[in-house]
Design goal:
It is built from 5 helices and 9 strands. With 271 residues, it is an alpha+beta fold. It has a 5-stranded antiparallel sheet. It is globular and about 45 Å long.
C-alpha cells in the first residue's frame, strides 16, 4: 500500500468537525449495541495545519481546517502546509481503557519519515515533509486522530500500534477491521497553556448518523460526552497530546489475539 493512500484515508477524518454531543437517547441506543471489548490496538496521529489561514473548510473558525483542505493538498501545493505524523499507539486493557501520550517539537527542516510501506512515521501529504512548523505570523491548528486496529495479532502487534494500515488490516487482506474511530480538534493559538476537549466519533462512522456503516464500524467509535478526552499542552516550541479514552468493542470480531497482553491499570490524569 502506498503511503499516499494512507494520506488520502487520513483525509476522511475531516468530513465534519461539528462534534455536537449525541443525545442521551442516541447514545444509549449506540452503547447497547456494544459488547464489552477485548483488548484492542489503537494508534494516534498528529494532523498539523501549519498555515490555517489558507484553510477553506470553516473560514469563520475557531476550527478553520478540515477534510477539504487535506484532500486539496495535492492540487494546491498544500497551501495550508499540512503535516500528518504518527503520534502514539497502544493496547487497551480488557475494559477498553487506553492512555496515549506524544510530544512533538518545532522542526522546520525537511524530515525523513519514510523507509518503505511498512516502516514509516509519516501520513502525508506527499508534497510537505516538515513537521510542527507554524507559518510566519501564524499558529498551527492541531487535530488529533484516533484509529482502531482491532484485537492484537501477536505477529503484527508493533505495526498495529505504530502504522496507519498494518498487515492485520482487512485493507491489506488481514483479519482485522482497521477503522477511524475518533478525533479532537484544537483552535490555533500562539499562547502556551493546557486545553482539554472531547474526543468524539469519526463523523463518517458515527452510530447516530451513519446509515450505511457496519455494526463493527459503529461499535468502535468514541462517543462524545462519555469521558473520552484529549489534552493539548503547549509549552513554547513543544506540544504534548494526551488521549485518555475508553475503547468500546464488539466481542470477537476480527482476529483473536494469540496471547492476551496484561496491561497495567492507568489512573486518571489530574490537572
Amino acid at each position: 500500500m502506498k503511503l499516499i493512500n494512507a494520506a488520502v484515508a487520513l483525509g476522511f477524518f475531516f468530513l465534519n468537525y461539528a462534534f455536537a454531543n449525541a443525545s442521551d437517547e442516541t447514545t444509549d441506543r449506540a452503547l447497547k449495541k456494544m459488547a464489552p471489548p477485548l483488548p484492542r490496538a489503537n494508534t494516534m496521529w498528529w494532523v498539523l495545519f501549519n498555515k490555517p489561514s489558507m484553510c477553506t473548510t470553516n473560514p469563520s473558525g475557531p476550527i478553520f481546517c478540515g477534510m477539504p483542505d487535506v484532500m486539496a493538498a495535492g492540487s494546491n501545493g498544500n497551501s495550508a502546509e499540512i503535516a500528518i505524523i504518527s503520534a502514539s499507539g497502544g493496547v487497551s486493557d480488557k475494559k477498553g481503557k487506553l492512555l496515549m501520550v506524544s510530544t512533538i517539537y518545532k522542526s522546520c527542516g525537511t524530515l525523513d519519515l519514510q523507509v518503505d510501506e511498512d516502516l514509516y512515521a509519516w501520513g502525508g501529504p506527499a508534497n510537505f515533509q516538515r513537521g510542527y512548523c507554524p507559518s510566519p505570523g501564524e499558529a498551527t491548528e492541531v487535530h488529533i486522530v484516533i484509529r482502531d486496529h482491532g484485537p492484537v495479532v501477536e505477529a503484527d502487534k508493533i505495526a498495529q500500534i505504530s502504522t496507519f494500515t498494518d498487515a492485520s488490516c482487512s485493507q491489506r487482506s488481514g483479519p482485522n477491521l482497521c477503522v477511524d474511530s475518533g478525533v479532537a480538534a484544537f483552535p490555533p493559538s500562539m499562547s502556551s497553556g493546557i486545553e482539554t476537549t472531547d474526543a468524539g466519533c469519526f463523523p463518517m462512522f458515527c452510530p447516530e448518523t451513519c446509515t450505511e456503516c457496519t455494526e463493527e464500524q459503529k461499535s468502535v467509535q468514541l462517543i462524545a460526552g462519555m469521558g473520552n478526552e484529549v489534552t493539548l499542552k503547549h509549552v513554547g516550541d513543544t506540544m504534548t497530546a494526551i488521549a485518555e479514552i475508553t475503547i468500546p468493542g464488539k466481542g470477537k470480531k476480527g482476529a483473536k489475539a494469540s496471547k492476551r497482553e496484561k496491561t497495567p491499570k492507568m489512573g486518571k490524569l489530574r490537572a
